[in-house]
């Protein structure tokens, strides 16, 4: 059984000894896994609510271990951040997503999760710039998903980096919005294009009016700032209806499509499998 709530990575045994063992195992295996090419990206569609059109795909990393099977990112990203492995892994994710974007319909973007640690590394902007050049994708087809915590460590520097990235034409979304800092003043200083409403609000909005109020407030805030709103973790038609009524423009979740590897579609195009 999965114990929940201990740290960021899922834990298979509640005793701390096992937790430490598992962490140790992940740490020792990450390096060899990266060299061996165990990692893969799955893609989950993001849809424009009014039209139902797929506008982009979020890239989600998967680790396929030869003996232990698929290990979810929640179990290794934080370890990769602590050990520094997030730098090569994060760069690999960016390059792979931009390469894959060339196989997707031209009007679709790829959204890539950027760890706060990766965001703050010395040459982050240079790396992104290089990958865009190498792969030849239009910068507007790349969206970076950054959490509030990534931006709050060193606000001036973060504002500077965001300015450079958006000046290049890259799109920026604030991920897990509403779960982090309550101080909204930083929003004024930062250049970004989207607020991404965290799944915790979406999953509760049917039963808890406070969550619905939070969703409406985020949509209102987005409007006032001139950015778009996307909701993640949409699992039911009712949630989609409520989000639409609240004025949310883009949706993503199991109801519309699960994360899946790229496959060859009927028309010869390579598109992610639906569900
Ligand atoms: P996230 O960025 O908030 O991504 C959304 C997570 O919710 C994903 O889990 C996705 O598979 C899952 N999800 C999508 N739709 C639904 C739904 O309708 N219901 C439910 N219950 N879940 C849904 P996943 O793939 O396990 O990723 C977990 C977290 O790991 C991500 O949270 C993100 O923070 C991190 N992550 C994933 N890929 C990468 C990566 O390439 N780089 C970095 N730095 N972090 C990553
Ligand atoms: Ca994300
Ligand atoms: Ca989330
Ligand atoms: Ca997250």
UniProtKB/TrEMBL annotation:
Sorted UniProt keywords: Membrane, Transmembrane, Transmembrane helix
Highest taxon in the source lineage: Bacteria
Keyword flag Transmembrane: yes
UniProt domain EAL: residue ranges: 23-273
GO molecular-function term, one example from the UniProt record: cyclic-guanylate-specific phosphodiesterase activity
This protein's name: Diguanylate cyclase (GGDEF)-like protein
Species this protein is from: Aminobacter aganoensis
Lineage start: Bacteria, Pseudomonadati, Pseudomonadota, Alphaproteobacteria, Hyphomicrobiales
